[in-house]
Amino acid sequence: MKRINLDLFELQVFLRLAEERGFRAVAQDVGLSGPALSRMVARIETRVGARLFDRDTRNVALTPQGVALRRAAVRILGETEDAMKEFTGFLDAARGRVTLAGLPSVTAGVLPPLVARFTREHPEVEVHIEDALSDGVVAAVSEGRADLGFTAGMMDSSDRLSFRPLFQDPFVALGTLEFLAEDRVYSWAELLGHPFIAMARGTSVRALTEAAVAQTGGLLHARFEVSHLTTAGALVAAGLGVTALPTMTLPVLGRPELVIRPLGSPSMIRRIGLVWATGRTLSPAARAFHGLVCTQADGRKGDDA
User: Fold this and answer.
1) Highest-confidence range of 7-11, 41-45, 125-129, by mean pLDDT?
2) pLDDT per residue over 95-107, tens digit each?
3) CA-CA distance, 295 to 73, in Å (whole number)?
4) How many CB atoms neighbour CB 7 within 10 A?
5) The predicted structure's pLDDT at residue 305
6) Where are the alpha helices (DSSP H) in the chain?
7) Distance between alpha carbon 207 and the CA centroid of its chain, in Å?
8) In degrees, to the nearest 5, what angle opens at C-alpha 231 toward C-alphas 229 and 237?
9) How far is the CA of 91 from the CAs of 84, 281, 283, in angstroms?
10) Cβ contacts of 225 within 8 Å, gap of 6 or more
11) How far is it, in rounded angstroms, from Cα 211 to Cα 231?
């Protein structure tokens, strides 16, 4: 099969000539001299192997082969224009996809208003969210499965990952009036004197809980150990014990009947930050979401000042 190789400019000139049916007007429009336009048409006909125009001193008319090429040219140029519009939309962050990985408490408590604002400003960008523990968030970003991650800790930026602190998330005590009847600040030692419901090992909450307990000089003896925040909330609501959780986890619990008290001695704060792959270029949409998060975080710091 013969391969026909015409560039987009040649197809555009061909279509203009098919519409105008006059060399002089088309030559002026496309910025070519009359002889140069004639040579281009001859070159196009040579490449396709067919006569495309019947022409005399006054008129230019398409041959049947020219009519067929016009249909093809309209389709090719239309698809090219649509593709370039799509690409321009991608560059302008008007289209595309952003994948976010985050701790469940962050994806439930922090991300919804951010995603709501982002989708209002970028309605055609697809946003995908993955819930994961801290290690899973870091892995998703490192392996390229997520553009941005929301995790807990004090990790530093490295050759592999960049990290920006965002929010401070203080721990509070949770229980029922049976255990937390007084409206005051409770200590970790007091909390550990009751049946304690702990999050599973490997979670950021468990690591900080163990750090707090170590500062009291005691040991963590969990009455119950759970993997999901909603389970911890249900056990506490049933009066089976108390727990300590960061404030950002509270919307996940869905338990308005729980008693929440300030927690100190020591005061524990979970630090939430944004992580992305160092040296990997973010898509325009991901970069736009990154900018929104940082702007919101800076505004929040200003409010706290």
Assistant:
1) 125-129
2) 788 999 998 888 8
3) 47
4) 8
5) 42
6) 8-20, 23-30, 34-48, 64-91, 104-109, 111-121, 134-142, 188-192, 204-216, 229-237, 250-253, 284-304
7) 28
8) 105
9) 10, 13, 8
10) 197, 198, 199, 200, 201
11) 22
Give dist(CA 130, CA 136) in Å, integer.
Answer: 10
| Mean pLDDT on 66-74 | 88
Q: How many residues does the chain have?
A: 305
Beta strands 259-264 and 243-246 are unpaired
- Residue 171: strand pairing partners: 246
In angstroms, the CA 2 to CA 233 distance is 71
Domains of the chain: residue spans and CATH: 8-86 (1.10.10.10), 95-166+271-304 (3.40.190.10), 168-269 (3.40.190.10)
Strand partners, 124: 95
- CA dist 112 and 135 (Å) reads 22
Query: For residue 180, what are the CA distances in angstroms to 195, 259, 273?
Result: 12, 7, 31
Phi, psi of 263 (to 5 degrees): -130, 130
Task: State both tokens at 278.
Answer: 């160092």
Q: Is 105 exposed, middle or buried (0-12, 13-18, 19+ CB in 10 A)?
A: buried
CA distance 237 to 234: 5
For CA atoms 291, 296, 298, 299, the dihedral sign is positive
pLDDT in tens, 220-279: 889 999 988 889 999 999 999 999 999 988 888 877 889 999 999 999 998 889 999 998
Q: Are 241 and 152 in contact (CB under 8 A)?
A: no
